[in-house]
């Protein structure tokens, strides 16, 4: 039996050193040099250098003058992230979707896009599909008293179109640009 | 389906299938100790490990010694991780001052990572420290995958060798699998992920003031290095609680492609490794064809199902379309479904959308993939040794049909081999149906379900299926973090892991000892479309039929009640 104890214990410790310490340290070292922006959380700062969030983490936006983020089951809490985990057959899901739809519905624009009525997997989805932004555009334009055409330019700038996934708009980037164009205060 | 959906599927299959023959040969050379382009760099590290551990690399082990070595190594790894989880509160590299885990949760977590399951009854960013993520979880991610690879090559050698009484050296197989097989690929993937936006830092969580002026804590950590191995090692345990749905764990459509393809990159390649061991790549092609067929059947069913609007949400004010609850905007329906099918085909268990909120039949495809024992590519090593068991069962059935002693690649299958094969067939039913039934029949444990009706039963069924199959994904609403479920699902994970590994190694030892009979005209060919079809039918009937009643009570009942 002792013939197994020494290799077992020493290999566990050796693998801990190699894969648990050296490997993450090597990745950190290279990443901090090659991609410092991303490796540190894609932080977004204002003109004074204050951290205002991360380009990848959703923020809550309330009020007609802002583009609202994808709904969050965890109220945009970041520690810990969470989802609704409501089954498609759960009446609570249908109730919530219908209630939210009745509040956001604009007759002249047709039915409310699903992305504005459903919570994301992470509760921190930083994006919305373009149609969910388009649905909010007239409301935001009216509240900020800017033309829809000028807003559309900002939307286009904040839109990502990857080859292997659906187009999405980064809501934080869009709202930041909006704040620069027509400050809310 | 849009053009980007088709491009995603195309890129996925290209990344997974094109390098497989080359990568499979690489794994053969590595595991047999042949020189590769990495040898000058990693050779000294490898030899240093043997010297420090007192291992003679030339000394081969019989199946019993090989098994004891494997068990000793896994036990040592379990104890170390269990201790780290209990004591992390007083250990360094814990900037958020997280306390140690409660004992049943620590037991569940340690078993989970040791068995390559990565079932997570906790949320990473809120309950494990940076130190635990690194020296605890990341290490077990590597070595549990390496253990699977070691068991696979032991079985390959058992089939390939003649009149032999050894299967190789476990310590050597484990070391080579980790150093050459996993580390280099992980380094590449980790850097690709950082490039796309995954954090990799030891700095504390950052405090931000949002645009509307509220406080926000931004969790960080050495995430990319762990996410790389949890994908490539078919582990699946997320750095963050919501796994690859978290924008830091999977920031873009491109990172999604890299991560989902990484799940089965190594398992696909290993099918070719097997072909090199038995010096017959036609065998590999027959097995790959069967795996691909099962993948496409499940995948197209799930894609179709998930594109159906949920009838419960019908309303003039709600846009009708593929349901988005629990899905991230940047992946859309196709990117989410591809992940669901891949992660449950392999024993990965990471998720990029919440499986609890999937349409009933999509969730059923995920469950069926796991119930079949995760042989559709499957976990690193574990998928193919599971598949080879089905191959042997198919050969046995074919032998019964044509009235000849069944033989596979010149090795006769006799009473002992068939007994061991049947023992492995019992693993999934025992874990899912027996343990699951105990949990479902006790009011306390059954209270962990959070959705009403048939779906509530599906949540419990999924949990025990995922545990036994060493998958680790969940219908995550299920309140799994109770002492009962922590212990029972921990037990299911142990049964699911060692209930396969022990018979497989015994089988390998028994096959290795046999003489090889020359294959004649009367031998049943184990390549070509006829055998692939037989294998497919065997998997579905022998592996799948047992679970049909439970599926009827869960996802099928939910599907019908929703009026799709």
Automatic annotation (TrEMBL), chain A:
<comment type="similarity">
    <text>Belongs to the KdpC family.</text>
</comment>
<keyword id="KW-0472">Membrane</keyword>
<dbReference type="Pfam" id="PF02669">
    <property type="entry name" value="KdpC"/>
</dbReference>
<keyword id="KW-0406">Ion transport</keyword>
<protein>
    <recommendedName>
        <fullName>Potassium-transporting ATPase KdpC subunit</fullName>
    </recommendedName>
</protein>
<dbReference type="InterPro" id="IPR003820">
    <property type="entry name" value="KdpC"/>
</dbReference>
<keyword id="KW-0633">Potassium transport</keyword>
<dbReference type="GO" id="GO:0005886">
    <property type="term" value="C:plasma membrane"/>
</dbReference>
<dbReference type="GO" id="GO:0005524">
    <property type="term" value="F:ATP binding"/>
</dbReference>
<keyword id="KW-0812">Transmembrane</keyword>
<keyword id="KW-0630">Potassium</keyword>
<keyword id="KW-1133">Transmembrane helix</keyword>
<comment type="function">
    <text>Part of the high-affinity ATP-driven potassium transport (or Kdp) system, which catalyzes the hydrolysis of ATP coupled with the electrogenic transport of potassium into the cytoplasm. This subunit acts as a catalytic chaperone that increases the ATP-binding affinity of the ATP-hydrolyzing subunit KdpB by the formation of a transient KdpB/KdpC/ATP ternary complex.</text>
</comment>
<keyword id="KW-0813">Transport</keyword>
<keyword id="KW-0547">Nucleotide-binding</keyword>
<comment type="subunit">
    <text>The system is composed of three essential subunits: KdpA, KdpB and KdpC.</text>
</comment>
<dbReference type="GO" id="GO:0008556">
    <property type="term" value="F:P-type potassium transmembrane transporter activity"/>
</dbReference>
<keyword id="KW-1003">Cell membrane</keyword>
<keyword id="KW-0067">ATP-binding</keyword>
TrEMBL record, chain B:
<comment type="subunit">
    <text>The system is composed of three essential subunits: KdpA, KdpB and KdpC.</text>
</comment>
<keyword id="KW-0633">Potassium transport</keyword>
<keyword id="KW-1003">Cell membrane</keyword>
<keyword id="KW-0406">Ion transport</keyword>
<keyword id="KW-0812">Transmembrane</keyword>
<comment type="function">
    <text>Part of the high-affinity ATP-driven potassium transport (or Kdp) system, which catalyzes the hydrolysis of ATP coupled with the electrogenic transport of potassium into the cytoplasm. This subunit binds the extracellular potassium ions and delivers the ions to the membrane domain of KdpB through an intramembrane tunnel.</text>
</comment>
<feature type="transmembrane region" description="Helical">
    <location>
        <begin position="253"/>
        <end position="274"/>
    </location>
</feature>
<feature type="transmembrane region" description="Helical">
    <location>
        <begin position="68"/>
        <end position="87"/>
    </location>
</feature>
<dbReference type="InterPro" id="IPR004623">
    <property type="entry name" value="KdpA"/>
</dbReference>
<dbReference type="GO" id="GO:0008556">
    <property type="term" value="F:P-type potassium transmembrane transporter activity"/>
</dbReference>
<feature type="transmembrane region" description="Helical">
    <location>
        <begin position="134"/>
        <end position="156"/>
    </location>
</feature>
<dbReference type="GO" id="GO:0030955">
    <property type="term" value="F:potassium ion binding"/>
</dbReference>
<comment type="similarity">
    <text>Belongs to the KdpA family.</text>
</comment>
<protein>
    <recommendedName>
        <fullName>Potassium-transporting ATPase potassium-binding subunit</fullName>
    </recommendedName>
</protein>
<dbReference type="GO" id="GO:0005886">
    <property type="term" value="C:plasma membrane"/>
</dbReference>
<keyword id="KW-0813">Transport</keyword>
<feature type="transmembrane region" description="Helical">
    <location>
        <begin position="6"/>
        <end position="28"/>
    </location>
</feature>
<feature type="transmembrane region" description="Helical">
    <location>
        <begin position="375"/>
        <end position="400"/>
    </location>
</feature>
<keyword id="KW-0630">Potassium</keyword>
<feature type="transmembrane region" description="Helical">
    <location>
        <begin position="286"/>
        <end position="305"/>
    </location>
</feature>
<keyword id="KW-0472">Membrane</keyword>
<feature type="transmembrane region" description="Helical">
    <location>
        <begin position="177"/>
        <end position="195"/>
    </location>
</feature>
């Amino acid at each position: 039996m002792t013939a197994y104890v020494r290799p077992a214990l020493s290999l566990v410790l050796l693998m801990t050193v190699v894969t648990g310490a050296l490997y993450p340290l090597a990745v950190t070292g290279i990443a901090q040099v090659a991609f410092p922006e991303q490796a540190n959380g894609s932080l977004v700062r204002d003109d004074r250098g204050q951290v205002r969030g991360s380009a990848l983490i959703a923020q809550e936006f309330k009020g007609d003058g802002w583009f609202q983020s994808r709904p969050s089951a965890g109220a945009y809490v970041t520690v810990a992230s969470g989802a609704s985990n409501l089954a498609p057959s759960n009446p609570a899901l249908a109730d919530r979707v219908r209630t939210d739809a009745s509040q956001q519905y604009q007759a002249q624009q047709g039915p409310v896009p699903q992305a504005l009525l459903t919570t994301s997997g992470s509760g921190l989805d930083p994006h919305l599909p373009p149609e969910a932004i388009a649905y909010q555009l007239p409301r935001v334009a009216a509240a900020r008293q800017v033309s829809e055409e000028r807003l559309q330019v900002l939307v286009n700038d904040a839109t990502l179109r990857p080859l292997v996934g659906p187009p999405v708009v980064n809501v934080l980037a869009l709202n930041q640009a909006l704040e620069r164009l027509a400050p809310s205060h | 389906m849009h053009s980007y959906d088709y491009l995603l599927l195309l890129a996925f299959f290209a990344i997974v299938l094109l390098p497989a023959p080359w990568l499979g040969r690489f794994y053969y050379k590595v595991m047999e100790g042949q020189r590769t382009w990495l040898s000058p760099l990693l050779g000294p590290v490898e030899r240093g490990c043997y010297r420090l551990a007192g291992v003679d690399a030339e000394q081969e082990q019989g199946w019993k010694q090989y098994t004891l070595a494997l068990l000793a190594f896994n036990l040592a790894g379990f104890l170390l991780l269990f201790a780290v989880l209990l004591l992390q509160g007083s250990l360094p590299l814990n900037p958020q001052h997280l306390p140690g885990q409660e004992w049943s949760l620590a037991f569940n977590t340690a078993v989970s990572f040791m068995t390559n399951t990565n079932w997570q009854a906790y949320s990473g960013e809120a309950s494990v420290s940076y130190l635990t993520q690194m020296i605890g979880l990341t290490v077990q991610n590597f070595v549990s995958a390496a253990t699977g690879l070691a068991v696979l090559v032991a079985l390959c050698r058992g089939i390939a060798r003649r009149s032999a009484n050894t299967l190789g050296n476990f310590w050597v197989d484990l070391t080579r699998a980790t150093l050459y097989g996993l580390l280099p690929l992980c380094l590449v993937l980790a850097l690709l992920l950082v490039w796309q936006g995954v954090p990799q830092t030891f700095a504390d969580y950052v405090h931000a003031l949002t645009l509307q002026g509220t406080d926000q804590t931004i969790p960080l950590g050495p995430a990319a290095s762990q996410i790389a191995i949890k994908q490539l090692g078919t582990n699946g345990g997320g750095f963050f609680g919501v796994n690859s749905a978290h924008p830091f764990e999977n920031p873009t459509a491109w990172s999604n492609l890299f991560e989902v393809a990484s799940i089965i990159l190594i398992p696909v390649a290993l099918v070719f490794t097997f072909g090199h061991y038995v010096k017959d790549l036609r065998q590999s092609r027959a097995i790959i064809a069967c795996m691909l067929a099962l993948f496409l059947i499940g995948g197209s069913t799930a894609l179709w199902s998930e594109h159906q609007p949920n009838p419960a949400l019908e309303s003039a004010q709600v846009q009708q379309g593929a349901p988005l609850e629990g899905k991230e905007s940047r992946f859309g329906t196709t990117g989410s479904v591809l992940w669901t099918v891949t992660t449950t085909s392999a024993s990965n268990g990471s998720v990029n959308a919440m499986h609890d909120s999937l349409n009933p039949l999509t969730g059923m495809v995920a469950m069926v993939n796991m119930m079949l024992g995760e042989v559709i590519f499957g976990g690193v090593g574990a998928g193919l040794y599971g598949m080879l068991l089905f191959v042997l069962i198919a050969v046995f059935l074919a032998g019964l049909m044509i009235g000849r002693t069944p033989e596979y690649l010149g090795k006769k299958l006799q009473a002992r081999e068939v007994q061991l094969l049947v023992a492995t067939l019992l693993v999934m039913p025992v874990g899912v149906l027996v343990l699951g039934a105990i949990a479902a029949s006790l009011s306390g444990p059954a209270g962990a379900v959070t959705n009403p009706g048939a779906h509530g039963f599906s949540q419990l069924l999924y949990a025990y299926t995922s545990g036994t199959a060493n998958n680790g994904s969940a219908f995550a609403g299920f309140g799994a973090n109770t002492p009962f479920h922590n212990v029972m699902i921990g037990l299911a994970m142990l049964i699911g892991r060692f209930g396969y590994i022990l018979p497989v190694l015994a089988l390998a030892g028994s096959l290795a000892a046999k003489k090889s009979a020359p294959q004649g005209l009367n031998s049943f060919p184990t390549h070509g479309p006829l055998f692939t079809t037989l294998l497919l039918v065997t998997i579905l009937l022998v592996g799948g039929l047992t679970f049909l009643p439970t599926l009827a009570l869960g996802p099928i009942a939910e599907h019908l009640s929703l009026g799709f």
